Amino acid sequence: MFYFLLNAFVVFLLIGLFIIYWKLIRTAKRIYDALHNQHVPGKPFVPIIGQLSELYQAHKNDTIIDFMTNIVQKYGYYFLVGFGPLTRLFIIEPKMIGDILHRSHEQDYIKPADFVTIFEPFIGKHNLLVSEGAEHDRARKMINPAFYFNNLKAMISIMVEQTNKSIDELLSNFNNQQTVDLQKEFSALTLSIIVSGAFGKQLENQGDLKAIVCESIPKVAAAIEYRTMRMINQVPLLAKLPICQKHIIDQCSQDIARIVDQIIADRREGRSASLSSSSDLLDLLLSAVDSEGIPFNDQEIKEHALTFVFAGHETTGSLMIWISYILMTNNNVLRACQEEVDRILANGTQITYEHLTELNVCEAVIQETLRLYPSAPFLSRECIHEHTIGNENDRQLLIPVDTTIIIDIYQLHRRAEFWHRPLEFDYTRWLRDPITGLKPKLSHPFCYLPFGAGPRNCIGQNFAMLEAKVILASFIQRCNFELEPGQKIIPDIMVNMRSNHFQIEQLNRLRSLTLPDVKTDWLQHVLSNLDKLECLNSLSLVTGEYTDNVYRRSDSMTNFTKEYRFNMIPLARLRQLTISNCSINDLQKIFTEASQLQSLNIHLYSISQNVKSFPTLSRLTRLILKIDNKNNPLFTTNVLSMNTMELFLWKLPRLRHFVFSGKVHIDVANGQRWEILAIDLVTFHFNFQLEIDRINDILESFCTPFWLENKRWFVAYKDHRLFSIPYFADTIASFPFYPPVHSTAPDDRFFFQHIKHLQLPEVPTVDLHFFTHIETLELRCTILLTTLQTMIDLSRCPLANHSPDIFRWIYRVELFATVV
Ligand code: HEM
Q1: What is the biggest distance separating any 2 CA atoms in the chain, rounded to whole angstroms?
Q2: What SUPFAM superfamilies does UniProt report for this protein, alphabetically (predicted)?
Q3: 797 annotated as ligand-binding
Q4: pLDDT value at position 178?
Q5: For residue 456, pLDDT beyond 90
Q6: Domain locations in the chain?
Q7: How far does the centroid of ligand 1 lie from the alpha carbon of residue 783, in Å?
Q8: Which residue has the higher pLDDT, 794 or 160?
Q9: Could you say which of 52, 108, 189, 747 has the lowest number of CB atoms within 10 Å?
Q10: Among the listed residues 282, 214, 198, the one whose alpha carbon sits nearest the alpha carbon of residue 252
Q11: 100 pocket-lining for ligand 1 (C-beta < 6 Å)
Q12: Phi and psi dihedrals of 465, rounded to 5?
């Protein structure tokens, strides 16, 4: 008996060892040897455990990035590392990466098995993220239209609403001397946006259901991370065992699946709807059909919708965290964003799609953040057909079947060969050329891959960019944070890249506050507490535009604001102030009390000649002054004369940037008088509203060497406006568009280049000028692509650049025209 048991034990042991060898060692060793024989450097092959202990130690000590950086320094841009039993080939070489990700090699690679094991328990197998081959192709084609800009435009109201809600909640606690965990806040906000965008009104109206979904998803994400860091998900057998938080994933997945099933059923039967005025992601999934007219089934719809939620929230959340970190530690970046937001979203303007397309600095900051802190720091692929990658004249690698490749985006984005001063945060490297509007060219098409590349690239990238811009601009518009001192901020690589130990001190240190058109009682409450914000040095208070209904609605506000507002604002401390609805007396108070003020954006409803008695505002360098009485029946405006303008500007000896818009006396339209006043100005943009009879005489005064050569400032006159160009030139045009006849610009290019939105109600029959900077095109007619190309530089149209689908769209128009 003993011998029998011993024999049986030995047999089981041998079988066990054989299985371990076969499953966990043989393939890994084969791949290691095949690559090692091609002189691929790397860590030595250690069966089963590989470099796990070093990795684990580095993770524990928060030095995982240093660990990887050291390996790159030692071995170069491709090398081998053992992740436990699995050999991984790391690649940081753009040409090789291109060979792996490009559509032409689609059939040679799949997502690795452990990638599928990680996500399958929660989102299933039949979705964009993990499906393969024909199933993926079909789904991608059906879902692509949901992410066209036309459909995404409808999502912007959802993004804005959710962001404002989140900021309101933060601000409503501002008496508490608390710190805010921004990581949690941004994660909750991006989750809320994608959940509302994917599932619509029903979840929004039933707060408890939304809470279940929003609480369960981070739990699942945390459990997945926990299991991945312990190699549970990487070994299929272990992944199935009820250990290491599997119960959390199972329970949460069931809860969410139940709710989502109900939402889909209700939407099919019209019992619930999108949150926006147009279709949301769920509507688009329900209406999508493949080339044979077959729609998705309920299971597929559920999986795709959950995939959007899962793939779209932590990624954008960690992007926002890193952006706020950058803003809090780089004053110049913060200032640049603030200036842009103040200009494009002046006076608390509600964000629209058109505004987002103009936020170029914000866009550049987002792109640079994604370079240094990519939310998805690694991409992985498994080779299923032997295949050669690399440069014929330099280095080539034959990739054996079953090799898992890790593309290290984090290191790629920091390679000195492709990025000038690679470790420096320099958003200007992404700014468009002011003349051509083009973005700078990358040093290599595969050196910047925050959203991946090829047929499996991020389908949600346009969504993510719009969302990040909405959140960034809204936070800049409405509040400001300061970094809690003494924190250790380190990139931490888990499923997504995020920061570790990230807490932000909240509102007792608030330096900047934006109050858009808020209710009077709330405004009163906030204003009466302003003195408690000891660090406040920037305030934006926009109390209604001059529309009839505002005045009808808020007589009390007018009284309130007139009577009390200025008594409550701590003018003496402010360095920046944006304020609307002001009289000349309010302006005088600002000049008298706000001695620290450096930047003022003010909207006046009246101006008089008594500016002579104003004191000097010696620190002001930036002024945006708008005088407007056009819709305001309560006030009359005296037009501003040049004498008053001179008296006024003499009170501002350090003024360098001046933007003016308003009705003026004819004597203000005198270029020669401005030469003395504007000599120290670096930027000067104006929009003088006035009637002019002898325009040629006036234009002549703006044609001196001072205007045309020293400053290179040009002006134009059209529709009773004498304005500087291109700042105040039209950005929207409808065909046929005629530039101003009267202008000092060397040619008409200025006007055509400034048009960003073009409407084409009919096919042009006359020759049109070539538009080079069109960002959105409204086609209301059938037109040949070739005709369109003679009018518009489509390759420069960022929409077209971002989305090849736009090209398809225009192409479809061409086909249609041919059929007609
Ligand atoms: C800053 C935000 C985001 C980043 C950095 C990001 C990054 C990525 C990357 C790198 C991939 C490619 C993965 C691979 O090649 O293996 C990817 C795929 C994907 N992303 Fe995103 N993503 C973001 C936001 C979003 C959003 C908002 C959504 C949904 C609304 C989304 C949905 C997806 C989906 C469905 C895939 C799989 C596409 C396919 O395989 O066909 N992502 N993402």
Answers
A1: 119
A2: Cytochrome P450, RNI-like
A3: no
A4: 55
A5: yes
A6: 2-120
A7: 34
A8: 160
A9: 747
A10: 214
A11: no
A12: -65, -40
**417: Cβ–Cβ under 8 A, 6 or more apart, which residues?**
443
Assign 400 a pLDDT band (cuts: 50, 70, 90): very high
Cβ contact 716:729 at 8 Å: yes
Give the number of C-alpha atoms closer than 13 A to the C-alpha of residue 5, restricted to the C-beta side: 2
The DSSP code for 385 is: S
Helices and strands of the chain, counted as H and E runs: 33, 25
- Which of 135, 303, 315 most suits a substitution to test ligand 1, by most atoms within 8 Å of the C-beta? 315
Among 345-354, 356-365, 377-386, 467-476, the minimum mean pLDDT is found in 345-354
Long-range residue pairs from 351-356, CB within 8 A, at least 24 positions apart, any chain: 351/156, 351/160, 351/470, 351/473, 351/474, 352/156, 353/149, 353/153, 353/156, 353/466, 354/757, 354/776, 355/473, 356/156, 356/466, 356/469, 356/470, 356/473
Predicted confidence (pLDDT) per residue in 166-197, tens digit: 888 777 665 544 566 777 778 788 888 888 88
Contact between 155 and 280 under an 8 Å Cβ cutoff? The reply is: yes
Q: Which residue has the higher pLDDT, 410 or 558?
A: 410
pLDDT at position 305 is 86
Strand, helix or coil for residue 427: helix
Write out pLDDT tens, residues 585-616.
Answer: 888 889 999 998 888 999 887 666 578 888 99
Tell me the one-letter amino acid at 591.
F
If one residue of 100, 131, 458 were mutated to test the ligand 1 pocket, choosing by the most ligand atoms within 8 A of its CB, it would be: 458
E strand or H helix that includes residue 512: strand 512-515
Q: For 686-734, write each residue's pLDDT tens digit.
A: 999 888 888 999 999 999 999 998 888 999 999 899 999 888 988 888 8
Q: pLDDT over 70 for what percent of the chain?
A: 78
> Is there a contact between 659 and 693 (Cβ–Cβ < 8 Å)?
no
Q: Which atom of ligand 1 is nearest to the CA of 304?
A: 35
Please tell me the predicted confidence (pLDDT) of residue 229.
67
By CB neighbour count within 10 A (0-12 exposed, 13-18 middle, 19+ buried), where does 311 fall? buried
Residue nearest to atom 5 of ligand 1 (CA): 375
Q: How far is CA 505 from CA 163, 177, 485, in A?
A: 19, 8, 8
| Averaged pLDDT score across all residues of the chain | 79
Tokens of 783: 């037109």
DSSP three-state, residue 292:
coil
128 Cβ closer than 6 Å to some ligand 1 atom: yes
Which residues 6+ apart lie within 8 Å of 183 measured at CB? 317, 321, 498, 499, 502
